[in-house]
UniProtKB/TrEMBL annotation:
It comes from Thermopolyspora flexuosa. SUPFAM superfamilies: ATPase domain of HSP90 chaperone/DNA topoisomerase II/histidine kinase. The keyword Kinase applies. It comes from the Bacteria. The keyword Kinase applies. This is Histidine kinase-like protein. Coiled coil: none annotated. Keywords: Kinase, Serine/threonine-protein kinase, Transferase. Pfam families: HATPase_c_2 (PF13581). Residues 47-145 form the Histidine kinase/HSP90-like ATPase domain.
Length: 166
């Protein structure tokens, strides 16, 4: 596994406008950021558990208007971790979901134990699978990934505007 410093984020690892506070906050806790985290394990029920955790957190934060898009993206990121990160390990290690809220943005960050980067599939428009990151890219204002000392974090950011507080 390649070891990277915690602050490293490849220029090509992001799509969209990235809030300035985000790169540091997705790799380590920031006291200025409101955060909730959940350890998901590495089994097939993780995506459902992640959606339920996300739904409850958004309800608690008064951000129900974002629930559909955010739950869909969380489900895709967790499913990608289960399909592409966990199976390549000798012993499965857990996936962790963090929801962060700060400065007009909500961020979902999925930590997985693999150092393999996420791959966006643009080639086959008729494929029945493999387009989850295209969906993430379409719904989030920005998304990306950062390698960690062990594994990586894949994240997606959503704008929190006055419409989200209805």
């Amino acid at each position: 596994m390649t070891a990277y410093p915690l602050s490293w984020t490849a220029e090509k690892s992001t799509r969209g406008h990235v809030p300035g506070w985000l790169p540091g906050a997705v790799v380590q806790p920031n006291p200025a950021v409101v955060e909730r985290a959940y350890g998901l394990g590495a089994d097939r029920l993780c995506a459902r558990t992640a959606r339920e955790f996300t739904q409850q957190t958004l309800r608690d934060w008064g951000l129900e208007a974002l629930a559909f898009d955010v739950e869909l993206v969380v489900s895709e990121l967790v499913t990608n971790a289960l399909r592409h990160a966990v199976p390549h390990l000798a012993a499965p290690r857990p996936i962790r979901l963090r929801l962060l809220r700060h400065a007009g943005h909500l961020v979902c960050a999925v930590h997985d134990p693999s150092d393999r980067p996420p791959v966006v599939n643009h080639e086959d428009e008729l494929a029945e699978s493999g387009r989850g990151l295209n969906l993430v890219e379409a719904l989030a204002v920005a998304w990306g990934w950062s390698p960690l000392r062990t594994g990586k974090v894949v994240w997606a950011a959503f704008a929190v505007d006055s419409a989200a507080h209805r």
